[in-house]
Amino acid sequence: MQPRISMITLGVRDLAASVAFYRGGLGFPQLESPPSVAFFTLNGTWLGLYGRDALAEDATVPAEGSGFNSFALAHNVASEEEVHAVVDQAVAAGAKLIKEPHKVFWGGYSGYFADPDGHLWEVAHNPFTWIGPQDA
């Protein structure tokens, strides 16, 4: 198997609200999609939004659940200032600030926000290596 993540699909409670957050609030470019799903093109992958219950049904798992989902999505940026800018943009769009951006134990700089469905996003600057669009 070639290691790659082609698409990340998030189960959401309110598709229209989540589309407004990602497209309008964060500026993610939306692809043409059927009305029951939304797709956004990212650098090297896609983000899908699909009804939480429908996604659970498709995977044949229960839709109930709360708390920590055991994963976080990460968005790497080129500077500490950009960490603040992205986190501020997300919060202005309706995200919940989870952890203020600050220097972290591994020598970088990061903060966390949660989207309207509680999916965690880390925004990070790694001064030792740049993982960005040109690396996708």
Automatic annotation (TrEMBL):
Pfam families: Glyoxalase (PF00903). Residues 4-126 form the VOC domain. CDD domains: VOC_like (cd07251). SUPFAM superfamilies: Glyoxalase/Bleomycin resistance protein/Dihydroxybiphenyl dioxygenase. Gene3D superfamilies: 2,3-Dihydroxybiphenyl 1,2-Dioxygenase, domain 1. InterPro entries: Glyas_Bleomycin-R_OHBP_Dase, Glyas_Fos-R_dOase_dom, VOC_core. This is Fosfomycin resistance protein FosB. It comes from Posidoniimonas polymericola.
